[in-house]
Design goal:
The structure is a homodimer.
Chain A lengths: L8 H4 L12 E2 L14 H10 L1 H4 L9 H12 L10 E4 L2 H12 L5 E6 L3 H9 L3 E8 L2 E2 L1 H13 L7 E4 L13 H14 L2 E5 L24 E6 L11 E4 L2 H9 L8 H12 L2 H27 L4 E2 L7 E5 L6 H10 L2 E2 L1 E2 L12 E5 L5 H21 L1
Parallel strand pairs in A: 1-12, 3-4, 3-6, 6-7, 7-8
Antiparallel strand pairs in A: 2-9, 4-5, 8-9, 10-11, 11-14, 13-14
Helix pairs in contact in A: 2-10, 4-10, 5-6, 5-9, 7-8, 11-13, 12-13
């Protein structure tokens, strides 16, 4: 048997988060709720039949002009003013993270993240050799005062300054926290002052259950320091594999040139154009938000009943929920024990760039039926008590 | 205005090859012939309507099981014996090149290529910091005797040995050359002996006009040293953005984990499954091959008439044609002058990893109508004579 000489980055990206245990109740995946997956058969047939020359040919690296235009309208509702030349079409938001890393990150470069942060993006940034500068969160999101102090110290010590910051300011993955307006303004000011780029990952913004929307970081950006990542995965369908990046043309043109897949699929781009131009997209988002609110309620109630020791912050939107177990109880042990009872939850460990406190769990309520959520949390309670009893 | 601190690789990937001059006759692009783009509206509507849960959800990183299975049947016709677990679905062949580089190439690693070679793949390998070990071609393809001598010298000098080899053995881009069976056997033996991986890029194999097919390198590989890249771009539609890599599970699993786009689009995967399972794929390939033979004939005849000084090797298949101008006549000057006459051809310079001889042109005959090919070459003849007269 041949033995192969792999590059270091082949060791960094580990087990796929998309592997699931057959038969288990899935409480750890941001899959779409299956009954709400849209039927796009009409849009698909129209695209294939009426626009063959457009959708069956290579399209440009930057995306279809019509979709770049449609995205400007979509984000205008959030107060983001941009033109088609500010929009790069991608194969989902993670693809945007990767392209930004290709354009900005050299091995050893520092990337600012919240601790905890979105695990999959963190792994992709790691594969580019990124080092992390972790910043804690409170109820108002990333603690930008802590960040500022760290940046001052790095400057004073003449150390390598961070080039990128990654955050999910709305309904953060995994914590569900939404960053306050004051912190948002502070963060954008810090980026301008210290010369780093903010990657604003915003898949859940439209999936709001209650409370008032806060402008995205990109709407507060006057200096071109924010790259805003969007995706249809959480509001329409993950299978279309489409997202976008909004930023300065100078940056996104370079990101487009890094694409190795010859440009995003024009066929699914055309489907999304049609959905964005019609009312279907907005109607669908309403359905998703209403449904996710119900799932959130069921999970929060079940946790209060079955796991009263856990501290849970009910999120006001999004797909994810974060729970703190009593100090000394291992989230990893509970997750492992839960799997024996046929329930998948994620240990918080995967979401920390370093220094895992050890006692956190990440849940997603998007995919299962409410009855499965309740049953899954019931079994999790059993697993939890077994771990505590055994410890 | 903010100034940005880019990574080195942002400087490496230059102008997109997909940008075209409006109104020009395009004789330098492997775009599909528009009248032959397939209408997949029925397959698309069926996929969206009947398989919503499959095509609208995240699929796995490795690809839909049905497509992995269908690809094994497709390549069995070429004598490649493999199982679904040997097949990774990608967003086209270039995506496979990039994933292979992520898994194998560290900055400074050597990659063996023919000189000239496929420009876009070369640029992506460069962006990973690859250094090239260029090997000349003759009528029988890459001169493996020259490669063997170089590998012996590197070994004797205890130098860094190459990790990868990239080649297009059937209807090579840009030269159109097909590698002989003897050379193929020799190359696979060298890969086993010297421990490098062969990336076999094979988009044009089925687009054969005449002569007998030769087994692909993968069919000769008993040691797991060949990664065979495939794509539907040149035989069906570039817009579906689908390809595959066939290799040892150990390698392709690692490549799948490097995907930043959350897995290839399940929706277009399902369309390709249906086309592969039906007769439509095979029928379509026949149409493409017949059409491309006609385009080749028109271009070869026009070049003999309008550019009799050029040495042209009529390819037996594929999309590309390579022409040698008299020594001292600059391919780049001729290409620039042709553009003034509204014709796009590529200077050979873009296809050489280093040491461009300077007097080559690359043509593609896939996209334009035969009349455009004839008219384009007529104008090229004018441009050529102007350059020679001015020199």
């Amino acid at each position: 048997m041949t033995s192969y000489r792999y590059a270091r980055r082949a060791e960094i990206l580990g087990k796929s988060v998309f592997d699931h245990e057959p038969g288990a109740i899935i409480l750890n995946s941001g899959l779409a709720y299956p009954p709400l997956l849209p039927d796009v058969s009409m849009e698909a047939a129209n695209a294939a039949r009426d626009r063959t020359a457009e959708v069956m040919q290579y399209s440009g690296l930057m995306g279809l002009p019509d979709l770049r235009e449609a995205v400007t309208g979509f984000v205008a509702n959030d107060g983001v003013r941009c033109r088609p030349e500010n929009v790069l079409i991608t194969n989902g938001a993670k693809h945007g993270v990767d392209l930004a890393c290709r354009v900005f990150v050299e091995p050893g470069d520092r990337v600012i993240v919240t601790a905890p942060t979105y695990m999959t993006s963190m792994n992709h940034m790691r594969s580019h050799g990124a080092q992390f500068l972790p910043i804690p969160q409170d109820e108002d999101g990333m603690m930008t005062e802590v960040l500022e102090a760290k940046l001052q110290r790095l400057t004073a010590n003449n150390e390598r300054m961070p080039k990128l910051l990654f955050d999910v300011p709305d309904f953060h993955n995994p914590t569900g926290i939404t960053m306050s307006l004051r912190r948002r303004r502070h963060l954008v000011a810090l980026a301008s002052r210290y010369g780093f780029i903010i990657l604003e990952d915003d898949p859940y913004r439209r999936v709001r259950f209650e409370g008032e929307a806060i402008p995205p970081l990109k709407a507060l950006d006057e200096k071109g320091v924010v790259l805003a990542l969007g995706t249809v995965s959480k509001i329409l369908s993950p299978g279309l594999r489409l997202g976008w990046v909004i930023g300065e043309p100078e940056i996104i043109d370079r990101m487009g040139l890094q694409k190795s897949e010859g440009g995003s699929c024009p066929f699914t781009q055309r489907i999304v154009v049609d959905l964005m131009r019609s009312n279907r997209m907005a109607e669908h988002i309403d359905l998703v938000a209403k449904r996710m609110a119900l799932h959130r309620d069921v999970m929060v109630e079940a946790l209060a009943r079955e796991l009263p020791d856990a501290k849970v912050r009910p999120p006001q939107g999004g797909y994810f929920l974060w729970a703190e177990l009593p100090e000394g109880v291992s989230g990893e042990a509970v997750a492992d024990q839960a799997l024996k009872h046929g329930v998948e939850v994620s240990s918080g460990r995967l979401s920390f760039p370093e220094d895992d406190p050890g006692n956190f769990l990440r849940f997603a309520y998007s995919y299962p039926e409410p009855e499965e959520i309740a049953e899954g949390i019931r079994r999790l309670g059993i697993a939890y008590r077994e771990v505590v009893a055994g410890a």
